[in-house]
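Long-time lurker, first post. I've been practising inverse folding by hand and with some scripts of my own, and I keep getting stuck on stretches where the structure tokens seem ambiguous. Below is the full token string for one chain I'm working on. Before anyone asks, I'm not after the true native sequence, just a reasonable design that respects the backbone. If someone could post their per-position residues I'd love to compare against what I wrote down in my notebook.
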């Protein structure tokens, strides 16, 4: 077994906690207060302060009754705040149970006053380790929930480090209870915790960075007005190889410029938002809806039966026409023209399909608007005009 100096290891353990607290404070300054970094900074600070008190106490610089209970209380509260901070990082808000941290200190103090267990190094260390193990495992479970929803790259390693740190504390509790000379083993365990503290601080910051980058990426692919995808998002969502039945609807609002000119762009924006919401409610779960710009939308319907293409397009046209638009008491009659194109054979390309739907849309416009026109077949080898 590797022999480590317990005093040196505990000093480094304290340093790792205080460095982690400083990292979280810096992160909180750079990011929003709801990100959980302030809570995490408080968590590392409390555990670090408790460890410093224990060091002073072991050197007889503080009364034993004071430093034992104070260091244990700070350690218990600090690890509890760590679990709370991870939850706040996940959801952006404090869990309702966070107030229990203050209440939990009361039975701890009562038990200490009645039994004096905190004066026994073995019992005090066991309680500290078991609490730390529980809180770290809860934090790992919270990261698991975050990973399942957001699938951030840093979540899995953070989850692993938190779980391993919790397991290390749990094993430490076992060593304290069943090994007579447990101090050398604790030195090795706290050396592992030092590495874990640095890793937790780095990985939590990485999770926040991953979320920020993901948010920016989503913002770049979403239309800011309607909240649906834009051209860039559409290109990423469309399959690389089209299959027979894959269908595109090019949907364009009729005489939309007149609405903007007569009632203002705010009224026009209201119309676009309502139409986007209607299209979102009508599409199937695997259909892809995007705003192509201005008043034009595109709906990709994978593997739609040929017999259903026109009826579905007609239902969409009727639903848009039925939206009850009003502006200052004036009824706005909003209609749409729809061009439909469908894949009939393997080997047809996305540009060919969109171009055919676009040409069908022009046919619908020339046919009097507020109608549906279908391209008979995607001409093979076409390129967009």
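-- Answer (accepted) --
I ran through it position by position. Result:
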């Amino acid at each position: 077994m590797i022999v480590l100096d317990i005093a040196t290891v505990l000093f480094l353990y304290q340093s790792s906690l205080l460095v982690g607290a400083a990292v979280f404070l810096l992160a909180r300054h750079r990011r929003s207060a709801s990100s959980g970094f302030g809570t995490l900074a408080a968590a590392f600070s409390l555990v670090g302060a408790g460890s410093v008190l224990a060091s002073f106490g072991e050197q007889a610089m503080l009364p034993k009754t004071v430093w034992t209970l104070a260091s244990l209380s700070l350690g218990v509260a600090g690890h509890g705040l760590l679990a709370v901070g991870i939850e706040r990082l996940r959801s952006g808000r404090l869990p309702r149970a966070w107030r229990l941290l203050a209440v939990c200190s009361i039975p701890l103090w009562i038990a200490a006053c009645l039994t004096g267990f905190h004066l026994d190094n073995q019992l005090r260390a066991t309680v500290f380790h078991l609490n730390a193990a529980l809180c770290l495992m809860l934090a790992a479970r919270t990261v698991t929930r975050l990973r399942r929803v957001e699938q951030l790259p840093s979540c899995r390693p953070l989850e692993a480090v938190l779980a391993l740190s919790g397991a290390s504390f749990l094993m430490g509790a076992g060593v304290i209870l069943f090994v007579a000379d447990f101090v050398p083993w604790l030195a090795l365990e706290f050396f592992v915790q030092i590495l874990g503290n640095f890793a937790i601080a780095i990985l939590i910051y990485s999770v926040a960075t991953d979320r920020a980058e993901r948010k920016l990426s989503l913002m770049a692919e979403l239309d800011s007005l309607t909240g649906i995808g834009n051209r860039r998002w559409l290109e990423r969502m469309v399959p690389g190889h089209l299959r027979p039945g894959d269908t595109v609807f090019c949907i364009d609002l009729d005489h939309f410029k007149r609405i903007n000119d007569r009632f203002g762009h705010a009224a026009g924006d209201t119309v676009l938002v309502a139409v986007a919401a209607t299209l979102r409610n009508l599409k199937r779960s695997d259909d892809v809806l995007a705003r192509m710009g201005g008043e034009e939308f595109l709906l990709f319907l994978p593997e739609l039966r040929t017999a259903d293409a026109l009826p579905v397009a007609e239902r969409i046209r009727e639903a848009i026409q039925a939206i009850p638009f009003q502006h200052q008491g004036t009824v706005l009659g909003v209609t749409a023209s729809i061009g439909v194109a469908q894949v009939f054979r393997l080997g047809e390309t996305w540009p060919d399909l969109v171009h055919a739907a676009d040409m069908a849309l022009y046919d619908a416009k020339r046919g009097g608007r507020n109608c549906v026109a279908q391209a008979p077949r995607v001409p093979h080898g076409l390129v967009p005009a």
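A couple of notes from the structure itself: Residues 381-385 have pLDDT under 50 and may be disordered. Residues 194 and 300 are 53 Å apart (CA to CA). Happy to go over any region you disagree with.
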